[in-house]
Amino acid sequence: MRILIVNPNTTASMTEKAANAARAVAASGTEIIAATSSMGPVSIEGHYDGALAIPGLLSELKERQTAGYDAAVIACFDDTGLEAARSFADVPILGLCESAVATAGFLAQRFTVVTTLERSRVLIDNLVRRYGMGERARVRASDIPVLELEDPASGAIGKLRAEIERALAEDGAEAIVLGCAGMTDLARELQAIYGVPVIDGVSAAVKQAEALVSLGLSTSKRGSYASPLPKAFTGAMSAFSPAGKLG
After folding, report:
1. Helix ranges restricted to H, the chain
2. What is its EC number (predicted)?
3. Three-class SS state of 86
4. 3-state secondary structure (DSSP) of residue 224
């Protein structure tokens, strides 16, 4: 099977990091295809960035259709554009937050999501509650701008570890979820250090995507994820008219 990993920001190094994490866990018959959005913010930190990242995300999903993919993973822990992508696509689309908290729920009664900035903490906390894990999870911010995770000299890893240690000491966390795609390469190392499950959303989403494809299941097109109704879009959005699924 072919799984598309779409980075909805425009930083190619983050795409490669997510693709490497996906390939590390993919089954032998799974091909991982990586795509970086060609327009939008260099990182996604909050609602404004997320909104402006969605057109680029949808464009990548459309452009890759010719070559084909059996499922797609949106490589942002904010689950940027997830609902729109599920409405557009005819294959399973998975988000990192939903996949990661579902996986954590199999492994621990209490867990903590450690993310980057406070603005992202609030957004992710709302997602966790929406996904039914609000009573079992806490979300913490480690005060790390996303792009600092790309800079070994930034001190970001130290901040992340300090917040994980507070989660274990203060939250009663039995597992840790890494709340940013830029943290995906740290999961195994942190799990070895702290002795609790550390869940990376990219890896969790890839394995769940493989399961859905193997089971012959995809997103329901009845109701909320039904394909968009044909209509004209105007101005800069004219290329996104649903009449031809993004034209």
Report:
1. 12-25, 47-63, 82-88, 96-107, 118-130, 156-170, 187-194, 201-214
2. 5.1.99.5
3. helix
4. coil
Interatomic CA distance for residues 212 and 188, integer angstroms: 25
Q: What's residue 9's pLDDT?
A: 97
Residues 82, 165: Cα–Cα separation, whole Å = 31
Tell the residue number behind the tokens 């997830």, with chain if given: 82
3-state secondary structure of 5: strand
Residue count (the chain): 247
The single-letter DSSP state of residue 45 is -
**SS3 category, 67:** coil
Whether the CA torsion 28, 13, 120, 154 is positive or negative: it is positive
Instruction: With a cut of 70, list the residues of the chain below it in pLDDT.
Output: 243-247
Q: What is the DSSP string of 166-198?
A: HHHHHS--SEEEE-SGGGGGGHHHHHHHHSS-E
Number of CB atoms found within 10 A of residue 26's CB: 18
Check residue 242 and give its pLDDT. 84
* Helix axes of 156-170 and 187-194: crossing angle, nearest 10 degrees: 40
CB 179 within 8 A of CB 116: yes
> Distance of alpha carbon 48 from its chain centroid, rounded?
17
Q: What is the pTM of this model?
A: 0.94
- 8 A C-beta contact, residue 142 and residue 118: no
